[in-house]
Write a structure and sequence with these properties.
Oligomer: single chain
CATH architecture: Beta Barrel
Strand order of the largest sheet: 1-8-9-2-7-5-4
Distance between the termini: 51 Å
Shape: globular
CATH topology: Small Protein B, Chain: A
Number of strands: 9
Structural class: alpha+beta
Helix content: 25-40%
CATH class: Mainly Beta
Number of helices: 4
Number of domains: 1
Largest sheet: 7 strands, antiparallel
CATH superfamily: Small protein B
Length: 156
């Protein structure tokens, strides 16, 4: 039997869950250079303002910041460079067709190691309105209050 590969989360895009409804998510590989992978192993990445786009049949990730590796000297790349995501062509074309609809966007949700490979979880997302965000915050606050009350009740 084949062993399951261990996954280790590097970074999560919490802002994406605040700003969007995630309709569907999928996994993609990412094309990186050696010093970028070393920097990822140190956890030096920011997904906050990143997004994905389809250009000439290729899926690209924009705005993802990977800090330069300290010992990387001339091999370091631009921290904000556009990186190619690795998916099957038919999956990319299906996503491209869905993104052309109103209100849909491709947003990276998390970055993680699967074995020794770096993977990106991409979400097909629909934008939230301001009242949706307020409602989510109110629900989160109510849940926190209930948990706090239950914790206090259990102590007494």
């Amino acid at each position: 039997m084949a062993e399951k590969k261990q996954t280790k989360t590097i970074a999560q895009n919490k802002k994406a869950f605040h700003d969007y409804f995630v309709e569907e998510s999928m996994e993609a590989g990412i094309e990186l250079f050696g010093t970028e992978v070393k920097s990822l192993r140190q956890g030096r990445v920011n997904l906050k303002d990143s997004w994905c786009s389809v250009v000439n049949g290729e899926l690209l990730i924009n705005g993802m910041h990977i800090s330069p590796y300290e010992q990387g000297n001339q091999f370091n790349r631009d921290p904000l460079r556009v990186r190619r995501l690795l998916m099957h062509k038919r999956e990319i074309m299906r996503l491209f067709g869905l993104v052309k609809q109103d209100g849909y966007a491709l947003v990276p949700l998390s970055l993680y190691f699967k074995g020794s490979l770096v993977k990106v979880q991409i979400g097909l997302c629909k934008g939230k309105k301001l009242y949706d965000k307020r409602q989510d915050l109110a629900e989160k606050a109510a849940k926190r209050d209930i948990e706090r009350a239950m914790k206090d009740k259990n102590r007494a």
